[in-house]
Write a structure and sequence with these properties.
Blueprint lengths: L2 H13 L11 H14 L4 H9 L10 H6 L6 H9 L5 H20 L1 H5 L3 H9 L6 H8 L4 H13 L14 H7 L4
Helix pairs in contact: 2-3, 2-10, 3-6, 3-11, 5-6, 6-10
The structure holds fe (iii) ion.
Amino acid sequence: MSKFYEEIAELFRTRGDAAYHGEAVSQTEHALQSAALAEGEGASDALVVAALLHDIGHLIDDPSEELAGQGIDGRHEAVGGAWLASRFGPEVTDPVRDHVDAKRYLCAVDPSYRGGLSSASILSLNLQGGPMNDEEIARFEAFPHFHDAIRLRKWDDTAKIPGLAVPAIDHYRARLIAVESPR
Ligand code: FE
């Protein structure tokens, strides 16, 4: 029995139909596609759960969407990471917190990466601080879940396909319960 699974499923049910910022899929579609990509690559339970929940900050009560419309970054990754930290360990919360910085990192180190981003993602990049400088790159590469954050970022960038058939949230219930910390 997981109260937390029910809480998350309820969030997607009640708030997940909102558009994924600037893209042609909903928050729920984006989350489920991200998780399906992670699962398809054989990611760990923790990383599949991180992929599923990486944008949960947009679904809980926070003003980040409204702020983005005003040209201010609401830091949904920090809001989501903090919310998840009472339920999961760093193997889930670190990649969630770092998925925006992973974009800033990839834009700095991989010239082809930026060309593959959607226009909404390039717009938000500037609000998020733009590509990393050398010092930020070195610090980011030293993070314990650096590689997971990069993997999550690439699924995040791809999980925007309208109408794609993917498993529903209950498909991830067992994985979520497996990595959940006791409350
Ligand atoms: Fe995302």
